[in-house]
Write a structure and sequence with these properties.
The complex is a heterodimer of chains A (about 475) and B (about 170).
Chain A lengths: L4 H20 L6 H17 L15 H4 L4 H30 L8 H20 L3 H19 L6 H32 L4 H9 L5 H19 L8 H7 L2 H23 L6 H22 L5 H21 L3 H28 L10 H4 L1 H15 L5 H15 L3 H27 L12 H19 L2 H8 L1
Chain B lengths: L2 H20 L3 H21 L3 H25 L3 H4 L5 H24 L17 H10 L3 H21 L6
Helix pairs in contact in B: 1-2, 2-3
Classes of the chains: A mainly alpha (about 475), B mainly alpha (about 170).
Chain lengths: ~475, ~170
């Protein structure tokens, strides 16, 4: 048995060792570093299944004021590790594009493979954080490493624009977070979420001032999870960032944002104002994400809008405070989003990232076309895929809570989703190919994509393992 | 500290904070930011937070802003001076800021703790630096160490993104 904090220490040590190795071993093929990182993270992933049981929260002193080891956090540590491994596999396929933006002997690949490890450590800390100071610090670790990753291929003006937009807007959202924390601390005198809950229960605490602080925190978290009206950065940044980084942003950053949101909202959940505000944000996000996705011709941009739309469905789960439904949806979202991006990384290097570039993919590479098909139908929510059950649990929770408006708008927007996701499927299977070639897929990617396809279908038929993991 | 000093320093901060945004000349903006930081440092000191106040002057007003000025002077920023204000965007921004201010005032209006006078802090036997250091290395050790990792990642990023291309 090992204790949970060792997991993050392991990830951090792995990152530093690879960084040092990269600095001294200049002659090696840089992809070895990525394989080492994947292997190391896989070992930590296995270790997460042997984490010692939770220390009782009564003896909360020092370290345990900041850090918790509940079921949710261990589950999401595994989630963060799995995401990072998949992103690193995509990064190996993406390596030629990175190399071309760093001329000369130093190709920047070593850093490209190491920075995600530190992001992963940040994500793992973030899902364990139960104190606003620790939430802030680990959120900044995640965000600052994303600044680097988003603008990595700096020769490309679109990427630079994405990097600057992400930097400026993210800094603004951080300012809102700090201001909100300051209000909450000013009223309750506490930064620990548990103590804030206790302070809120006493009648002398000013409700409206804490609520103002909470709304400001909500602005910052809304930015991270890409909820309307804080979504303005999403399409440009997702389109401009290197594709593996886009996948990382849309899965890792969003999932951690939702975990923090669930934790932070718990003290405030009983206030009716908060409930109304969240319903409004969820409705706007659903409508905006799905309608804006309809006319898109660029697949990366389409996936950006679809990521906003999925935030809307996840927010329905948050409104109902059903963390199990949210977690299952996030797992399904991880599988299908990584599946789509993994295919996109490979195809985009051959032709491009427009939907038209996927014309006739079924003839060029039946395997990739099938993977994309599964990804798209799962994102749309066709039965027997993980995406369907995710939406099912969310809507079921909403019906139990009598959130009729959310269910009605949710179901209508799912219909919109079918249109734009199946547009990609139509291009792959019914359009003639502009160019006949065989796209080669590396063995590692083939294994990863195969596993993702299997997992998407398996969870769509038999979701019990995930539900058990959350209940145990 | 007498109340009029608070109002003096607070309005100094606000006026020069606005000047940072309104000035078209980047050098003037940067210098306004320095004055704004000095006002903030004075406010910290009025709250008996001497260490934070001095760090504010040394690090932000001193080191960081000097770097800013160097970079601004190295770059050729003539284009910035000729830029016009986008009145539509400016109006939108002012409206949003006004709504926020009204919201904050309405909350403060109901806020009981804002009206009562608190007893002054008891004199501590140890100095500020000692207190902050003790907190950083005891209770807040974990966030402090994560900040170390954060600085490492930021360093990697800066070196990487600002590297010159070989000729």
């Amino acid at each position: 048995m090992i204790t949970a904090p060792l997991l993050e220490v392991g990830v951090l040590v792995l990152g530093m060792v690879i960084l040092m190795f990269e600095a001294f071993a200049t002659k090696i093929d840089k992809r070895i570093l990525a394989f080492a990182a994947i292997a190391g993270l896989a070992i930590v992933l296995v270790a997460t299944f042997f984490v010692a049981p939770v220390p009782s929260p009564n003896q909360a002193t020092g370290f345990w004021n900041f850090y918790t080891v509940d079921r949710l956090s261990v589950f999401f540590k595994q989630f963060a590790l799995l995401t990072t491994i998949l992103v690193l596999i995509m990064m190996i396929d993406y390596a030629p594009a990175v190399r071309s933006s760093f001329p000369g002997a130093h190709d920047g690949l070593g850093e490209f493979f190491t920075v995600p490890i530190f992001t992963c450590a940040g994500l793992m800390y973030l899902v364990s954080a139960i104190d606003f100071i620790f939430i802030f610090v680990s959120l900044e670790l995640v965000t600052i490493s994303f600044y680097v990753l988003v603008s990595f291929t700096r020769k490309n003006p679109v990427t630079l624009e994405a990097g600057v937009k992400y930097l400026v807007l993210s800094a603004l959202s951080t300012a809102f977070l700090v201001y909100g924390i300051a209000w909450i601390f000013g009223v309750t005198g506490q930064t620990n979420l548990q103590r804030i809950t206790e302070a809120l229960a006493t009648p002398s605490t000013d409700q409206s001032a804490t609520l103002l602080g909470m709304v400001l925190v909500l602005v910052a978290l809304g930015f991270k999870i890409a909820a309307v009206p804080f979504q303005i950065w999403v399409p440009d940044v997702y389109q401009g960032a290197p594709t593996p980084v886009t996948a990382y942003l849309s899965v890792g950053s969003k999932a951690a944002g939702f975990v923090v949101l669930l934790r932070v909202l718990r003290p405030f959940a009983t206030l009716p104002q908060m409930q109304r505000l969240l319903v409004l944000i969820a409705l706007l996000t659903l409508i905006y994400g799905n309608l804006a996705a309809l006319p898109q011709g660029n697949l990366k941009r389409l996936l950006a809008y679809s990521s906003i739309a999925h935030t809307g469905y996840l927010l329905i789960g948050v409104v109902c405070l059903d963390s199990n439904a949210v977690v299952f949806y996030l797992v399904a979202y991880l599988l299908m989003t990584h599946l789509s991006f993994a295919v996109l990384v490979i195809v985009a290097q051959q032709t491009g990232e427009q939907i038209a570039d996927f014309d006739g993919l079924a003839k060029r590479s039946p395997f990739l076309a099938f993977a994309m098909l599964i990804g798209m139908v799962s994102l749309a929510g066709v039965p027997f895929t993980a995406g369907f059950l995710g939406k099912f649990f969310i809507f079921y929770a909403a019906i139990l809570q009598r959130q009729i408006a959310l269910v009605v708008i949710g179901v209508i927007t799912v219909g919109c989703g079918f249109y734009y996701y199946l547009k990609v499927v139509r291009a792959m299977y019914w359009q003639p190919a502009a160019k006949i070639d065989n796209i080669s897929v590396s063995t590692l990617s083939r294994i990863a994509i195969g596993a993702l396809i299997a997992a998407t279908i398996w969870l769509g038929v038999y979701p019990q393992p995930i539900l058990d993991a959350l209940k145990r | 500290m007498p109340p009029f000093l608070f109002w003096l320093f607070a309005s100094l901060m606000l006026v020069f904070g606005a000047a940072v945004v309104l000035n078209r000349n980047p050098v003037a903006s940067a210098l306004s930011l320095v004055v704004s930081f000095l006002g903030l440092a004075a406010l910290f000191m009025s709250l008996d937070a001497y260490f934070v106040g001095i760090i504010q002057v040394l690090v932000y007003a001193g080191a960081v802003m000097v770097l800013f000025l160097f970079i601004i002077m190295l770059l050729n920023l003539r284009a910035e001076e000729g830029r016009r204000i986008n009145w539509l965007a400016a109006t939108g921004g002012i409206v949003v800021a006004l709504i926020l201010v009204i919201q904050i005032f309405s909350v403060i209006g109901h806020f009981q703790a804002a009206r009562q006078t608190f007893p002054s802090l008891e004199r501590s036997t140890t100095d500020d630096v000692w207190n902050i250091g003790a907190l950083l290395f005891s209770n807040y050790n974990l966030p402090f160490q994560i900040v170390g990792v954060l600085v490492l990642v930021a360093t990697i990023g800066v070196v990487l993104l600002s590297k010159r291309e070989p000729r």
